[in-house]
Structure formats: structure tokens, C-alpha cells
Specification:
There is one protein chain. The chain contains 9 helices and no strands. The N and C termini lie far apart (135 Å). By secondary structure, the chain is mainly α. 3% of the residues are buried.
């Protein structure tokens, strides 16, 4: 600031009085002075272009500056210190809150009057404040959702297992039937040998045909002993 003040004094000293438009020597042409200074002074030499990056940045040294430059503060009736500024900000915030509450109350009154004009019951006109969902309730809802999904998946798995169990049971019966056929096929020759009155050729032919045909083999083993002889002779 001292450099700017010295520069202004020098410029005032170099201005020729004849350049003023006013006839009175004591009268000062402020507009001409401003134009003259703007055209002659290199203001960029007194600015700080590198401080642009510091805009809107917090400055934590207001208390220290207030203490250091306290003697240069204004002392008039309208002078304010930092404490007064903080009080003004607090009062403005409280006033804003009171205005917001008043406007909300007026809106609710207007809505109630409109509902009264339409004949809506008082119980129906009562407005409930929005319920806030806490973190605990939100977590419980998430856990319940996970449990429900898990239960659905388990139910699906049980259904799949039951269906698979039916198919497995059918496969087991099929394998058991095949195993029984193999066991019976191994004893066909012994059963045919028990039949009295058959020649060796008839035993071999009857046993071979019975062993090769599962249906014929099942029918042969379902017969009583006296009928097995007749069946073997017919097959041979």
C-alpha cells in the first residue's frame, strides 16, 4: 500500500495543471485522474497472479492477525470485532430457522384448511411425520432379506434333491433288476439239471434259451417245480 501511495503522489506531481478541463485551479477532476492513472500505471506490477490458487481456501490465522493488527481496527460506533461477527452470524441462522418453522406452520395450516373445506375427517387429516429408518433396523431388514433368499434357495435345493431321489430310486430298481437277472442267469443251468427226464442236449438248449431271454427267464423262475419240467421241454 505504501508503494501505491508513493506512486499516486508521483503521478499527481507530474500532471500538468493545464491538462485539467476545469478553470478553477483548486478544483480536482477525479474522472480525468482515474483515466490518466489507468493508462499510465502498470497495475500488474502490484498484483499477485500466483495467488489465484488460494481463493476459497481456509485461513486459520484470523485470531493471530486480529491480535497483531488490533490497533489498526476501526473504533467507531459501527466497528465490529470477530466476536460481534460471530454473534451476527448466529442471529442470522436463528432468524432463518424461525422463518423456516413459521413458513412450515403456515403451509400445514393452509393444507388443513383445504382439507376442512373438502370434508375430510380430522383423523384422516392428521399428518404423521416421516419415520426415519435407523441403521439397526436397516441392518435387520438386510439380514431378513438374506435369510429369505437362503430359505428360497434351500427350498429349491430340497425340491431338486427330492426329484433326483425319485430318479435315483428308479435307477436303483433298474440296477437291482439287472443284478437279479445276472444272479438267475448264473443258476439257470443248475435249475434245469434238477428237472428229471431231460437229456443233456435238452438241458443245454433249454438253459441257453432261458439265459438269453430275460422275460423267459423270469417266467421260468416264477413257475413251480412240476411246471418247470414242462416249460423246459417246450423250450428245448
Amino acid at each position: 500500500m505504501s508503494e501505491l501511495r508513493d506512486l499516486l503522489v508521483e503521478e499527481l506531481a507530474t500532471i500538468d495543471e493545464e491538462e485539467f478541463d476545469n478553470e478553477d485551479e483548486d478544483e480536482f477532476d477525479e474522472e480525468y485522474m482515474i483515466q490518466h492513472l489507468e493508462s499510465t500505471v502498470e497495475w500488474n506490477n502490484f498484483s499477485h497472479p500466483t495467488t489465484v490458487r488460494l481463493r476459497n481456501k481456509p485461513f486459520p490465522f484470523y485470531d493471530e492477525l486480529d491480535y497483531v493488527y488490533r490497533k489498526d481496527r476501526a473504533t467507531g460506533a459501527c466497528a465490529e470485532n470477530p466476536t460481534d461477527v460471530v454473534e451476527d452470524i448466529t442471529l442470522n441462522e436463528e432468524e432463518h430457522k424461525s422463518q423456516y418453522v413459521a413458513s412450515s406452520f403456515n403451509e400445514s395450516q393452509n393444507v388443513e384448511q383445504e382439507e376442512n373445506s373438502t370434508g375430510t375427517p380430522i383423523s384422516a387429516r392428521t399428518t404423521q411425520p416421516p419415520k426415519l429408518i435407523g441403521k439397526g433396523k436397516r441392518k435387520r431388514n438386510e439380514v431378513i432379506g438374506v435369510v429369505q433368499d437362503l430359505a428360497t434357495q434351500v427350498t429349491s435345493a430340497v425340491e431338486i434333491m427330492s426329484t433326483c431321489g425319485e430318479h435315483i430310486g428308479k435307477l436303483a430298481k433298474c440296477f437291482q433288476h439287472e443284478s437279479d437277472c445276472v444272479d438267475r442267469r448264473m443258476i439257470v443251468h443248475q435249475e434245469v439239471l434238477k428237472i428229471v427226464g431231460l437229456s443233456q442236449e435238452e438241458v443245454i438248449k433249454a438253459g441257453r434259451k432261458i439265459a438269453l431271454d430275460p422275460l423267459e427267464m423270469n417266467y421260468f423262475f416264477s413257475l413251480q417245480e412240476e411246471f418247470k419240467k414242462v416249460c423246459a421241454k417246450l423250450i428245448a
